[in-house]
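Pilot study result, target chain (187 residues):
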Amino acid sequence: MTQTPDTPASTPAQRALAAAVVEIERHVATGGWDGPVRVFALVRTQAALDAEPALASQLPAGVIAAAAADPDHLTSIEQEGLPASDDLEGLLGGMAWPEGVDGAALTVERIVLPPEAEEGLPEEPDAALAALLAHPQRQDVRLAVGVLRDGPSWCAVRQRAEDRDEAVGQGEDVVPGLVDALRATFA
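Predicted structure:
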């Protein structure tokens, strides 16, 4: 699962997206586990600075230098006050981005189990959840997924059991359902 977009076939936009997704995942990781879904708008930093020069006073010098060197450099803007929703699909289904937003990212925590863990689960939802939470092969993961309006995607996956920056798995389409759901917010 671990790959980087530093291949000859990758584009500058793909590399910028991968860097932004990894940065978002690391930022969220500093808050620990058991956090809420977090959603971020992604904007090309230099374009944002060109449109709003006062933004430069709010960004670190390293970000401004990176944006000057790379027109694809992305800045993430966390979306606060998300609308209430019963599930992630409902939340994303109600989102749409204005033209000035070049991409979107989200982080969400999930429980991953082998397929055989679903065999013999109780019918009652609360009892089934309790059984899944107590399963010995349960893996807690944090998924960070980002997409650009024009197509590229990148994912980062951190396991609670291997909670280190160097152990974060990465790839272009690791979580295809979330990639598709994020892309739909640009439709």
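One observation from the pilot: The radius of gyration is 18 Å. A full batch analysis is planned for the follow-on phase.
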